[in-house]
TrEMBL record:
Transmembrane segments: none annotated. It holds the Pfam family Peptidase_A17. This is Peptidase aspartic putative domain-containing protein. It comes from the Eukaryota. InterPro entries: Aspartic_peptidase_AS, Retrotrans_Pao. GO terms for biological process: proteolysis. GO terms for molecular function: aspartic-type endopeptidase activity.
Amino acid sequence: MESNPAIKSQGVFQDKNDNESQVQLTLCNNNKGNTNVILPVVKIGLYSSDGQLFVVKGLLDSGSQLSFITDELYKKLKISSFPKSLSIFGITKQASKTQMAVHVKIYSCTSSYNTEILCSIMTEITNNLPTSYFDKNEISLPKNVNLKKRFKRDPKLFLQYKEFIDEYATSGDAKMIDLKEYEGKMDTTAYFLAHHPVIRNDKRTTQIRVVFDESVVPKISWDETLPPDLYDMWKTFAESLISMPSFEIKRDLNFAEAETTDVLGFCDASNVAYGCAIYCRVIKKGGSILTNLVCSKSRISPINEKLTIPRAELNSALLLTLLIVKVHKILSRFINNVYIFSDSWVVLSWLKLNPYKLNNYVANRVSKINGLTKNFKWNFIESNQNPSDLISRGTTPKTLANSRLWWEGPEFLTQPHLSMQSEIESLENIPEVKSYVATTKAEYLPVLTKFSNLQKLQRVIAYVLRFIHNTKNKREKLMRNLTAGELDNSLNMTIKLEQ
């Protein structure tokens, strides 16, 4: 069906000599317009079996010989139907079948018109049509990619994935981008890497992980040969991993025999990585002290020129905060004290400042850390006693297996009384602190330069002051000549404005 042709001209010819018969001739000039077909849509009223009025949309097609109603609307009307099997054929002999039909009475929304029609019940009558054709086979889609809405089927997985992504964004490893910046730009190429979370159900803390590749720094692809320094690094690690001695990880924290239980957290960072480690210190009733590693967490430092070492240290402090809050929540009924350590004076100084004095990047993280650790105490520790230094700087598997610092913590944990440095040294120049400059804006009146005569300027200012006075005091208006007092006030105002 095409759009109606436009009628350009029309004429009627009549033979006057023949009164009994009349011949009419119509001349038409057709011009075919746009081939797009626009079918009218109307609003009509339908009543359900219980008398409820439904105002619905109806699509009018003058070329159709049948009427249809959607199964969804039929169920809402709650009216009786009857079997009526029809086979409906369209273009290219595409067939669809209907099994049921129903009699409905439609009402006009603007007049009293109503009529009863027979409608076949269909699941769907029409749908949105594309404005232009394209061949979907020409689009190169990645294979073996699950495009189903997996998160809707598994809300728990969605929450775990969201928590992981939020943590990555908070730590600076990832950032949100505005897709509108890339829309409509032909000179900008954007890539989207479809992915799905890798799940490790055997892990208690982080069940979703991301794998990083060191080769992205020198921009090496998979099939290229590693440069000598990376090759030697990988070879050394592989050989030391093979020769790594066997060891046992103690999981018994000895809570049953504990008189006092302390949880201690350490964090550290470098330009390569940052991480944290948490230890449990148990003082038994007999006086013996046992310390064990509870858990740890590490992150690769993002390749970002703006990420300074103090910022990386702050990210490690935030990572420690999030982890120690989880540990404290699980072991709260066994824990007596919680201590947190960092070897960065800058980070400890930031935590003492009000966040509004700091730049946004630092302020956001300081606010979150202080909010979660308001019941804990931050302390300073030397780098050589910080077990998280092994995370930030890295170590070999053999050294890690034999490291007492890593598995049991620093030596001062074995002392009956912990000697900690909780007083923060005042730094002269703390980075990331906002600079405030006080400025005053002098308002200059151009009226002072319009008159070269001081007496004339004095009288103009006096009349302006009189106008202000009369506006505020309508019952005590000054109407006569200027007085000496008004001229003196005008001169004082002129001097004040000039200064």
